[in-house]
Amino acid sequence: MTDADMIDDEQLAAEAWFRSLRDSLCAAFEALEDEGPGDGPPGRFVRTPWERPDPSGVPGGGGVMGLMKGRVFEKVGVNTSTVFGTFAPEFAKSIPGAEDDPSFFATGISLVAHMANPHVPAVHMNTRFLTTTRRWFGGGADLNPALPVNADTAEFKAAYRATCDAHGADYWNRYSKWCDEYFFVPHRNRHRGVGGIFYDRLEGDFAANLAFTQDVGKTLLDVFPELVRRHMYDPFSEEERIAQLRYRGLYAEFNLVYDRGTTFGLKTGGNVDAILMSLPPLARWD
Amino acid sequence: MTDADMIDDEQLAAEAWFRSLRDSLCAAFEALEDEGPGDGPPGRFVRTPWERPDPSGVPGGGGVMGLMKGRVFEKVGVNTSTVFGTFAPEFAKSIPGAEDDPSFFATGISLVAHMANPHVPAVHMNTRFLTTTRRWFGGGADLNPALPVNADTAEFKAAYRATCDAHGADYWNRYSKWCDEYFFVPHRNRHRGVGGIFYDRLEGDFAANLAFTQDVGKTLLDVFPELVRRHMYDPFSEEERIAQLRYRGLYAEFNLVYDRGTTFGLKTGGNVDAILMSLPPLARWD
């Protein structure tokens, strides 16, 4: 799968969904900018396309970074990418279905929102569809408040529990646990964030798995803007802002030390600006 | 080597030097706080001792974190540690002289200074003495200006070149090159810092190697305070402060993604506060 002409219907359908979700997310977040506090103009997304450099000269796809710096969203990235080609031999060994044939196709969306008001939780969502000789979906969504509010956490989890329950009896149990395991920061002996879901290698029925992945995105659209509206006008103290900047330090530590996507991308020549869009606009370690 | 009573004369001499250097550095930096700009009181170091947790119940040493937040030094850490015990079997394989006998002793000093004024360069210095069935020194010093000034870089390098030349004909060539290689950040295609020296596994004549390691520390005491005095009253713009905070983002990326000491320490249960004292007080990614 190294030629764009060979992209099949499933790959096209997944890619079209991620682009459509990107448009919905950007529109919803720009609407929050219009409603939000602040004297300056509401933020707007700036989209920057990039192409995947391919050493062999074969086109390898690319992506679009979407970045907004506003008055509600201090920094939010919504990136889509669709890349294809051949894995490096050493890496191919670790990827299901690429052991003998290193061809791959991957399409996905990644969202990280760092908020201006420390009472508004940060959020992360990422979903993707991968194709080797096998094909699977993966992704998740997790809430990252600097100042956790039990009601917000409960609402976020209830929304994702309902989404999981609609698609698989064991999904919530498995994917919420996977999220807790994945986002644990051993050196701090604490979690990044208060939970959500994390899933990977979801193989089998393409239509059913795409539908679940679509609902993971739609659930974020349903639940997150409501949490933003609830808190974006909350007054906050200098101490609360400092707590937010320190929490972002933990967020950056997790992404740079442990996150598989980040470290793999950095060490194998991915698009650095797109990968590191997840890093906070401002962070403190003191 | 798992008992403090068994520490020998070389180990004691190295440890005494690192503690003495720590005292000299703290005194020199506090003097700069007294001379520096700002209305607030001059900063003073706060020292916090820590003990190495040892699963087997045998005392494993510990260290002292020294942290100052001042008006010249926005955040500076000067840490000493002396730890001993037994390497984990998997790790022992990668350490010279520990392949068959995993006993070790390690003593050292680590300094990272993040400065308030963006025209004052940040600096890093670290020297250490390790003992397994072999024994060696390692360390280095490197200048990390957000806004490089050619004259400062030249002065810093000339000082370390003179120190190297006094101890070994090939030291400057080897150790300055090693520094450039070690502090390259592949994903940014640039270096952290403008250079200095980096050395490791300096075995053989203990007295000569200790003398070199002492001069690496003394050179920092000679050259760095002069650079601080030269720039600590420089006026600076908001843009220059932002450039400094962005440069610190690169600094944090290097330490969290690539630095061997940081990632090893985090993943093997070292003292987290001491390890991460290197992270900047405030950093930007935007």
Brief overview:
The structure is a homodimer of 286-residue chains. With 286 residues, the first copy, chain A, is α+β, with helices and mostly antiparallel strands.
Order of helices and strands of chain A: HEEEHEEEHHEEEHHHHE
- Computed over alpha carbons, the radius of gyration of chain A is 19 Å
Poorly predicted runs of 5 or more residues of chain A: none
* N→C terminal distance of chain A: 48 Å
Number of helices of chain A: 8
CATH class bucket of chain A = Alpha Beta
Largest interface: A-B, 25 and 25 residues
**Strand share of the residues of chain A?**
25-35%
Mean pLDDT of chain A: 93
Provide the domain count of chain A: 1
CATH superfamily of chain A: Coproporphyrinogen III oxidase, aerobic
Across the major sheet of chain A, the strand order is 1-2-3-4-5-6-9
Structural class of chain A: alpha+beta
Number of strands of chain A: 10
- State the major sheet of chain A: 7 strands, antiparallel
Description:
The structure is a homodimer of 286-residue chains. Chain A has 286 residues and is of the alpha+beta class. Chain A has one domain (4-278): oxygen-dependent coproporphyrinogen oxidase, CATH 3.40.1500.10. Helices cover 41% and strands 27% of the residues of chain A. Chain A contains 8 helices and 10 strands. The first copy, chain A, has helices at 9-35, 89-92, 150-165, 171-182, 206-231, 238-258, 260-267, 272-275; strands at residues 46-51, 61-68, 73-86, 103-115, 122-131, 135-144, 184-185, 190-191, 195-202, 282-284. In chain A, the strands form 2 sheets. Chain A has a 7-stranded antiparallel sheet. In chain A, strands 7-8 form a two-stranded antiparallel sheet. In chain A, α1 runs parallel beside α5 (206-231), α3 (150-165) crosses α4 and α3 runs antiparallel to α5 (206-231). The radius of gyration of chain A is 19 Å and the shape is globular. In chain A, 44% of the residues are buried. The mean pLDDT of chain A is 93. β10 (282-284) of chain A pairs antiparallel with β10 of chain B.
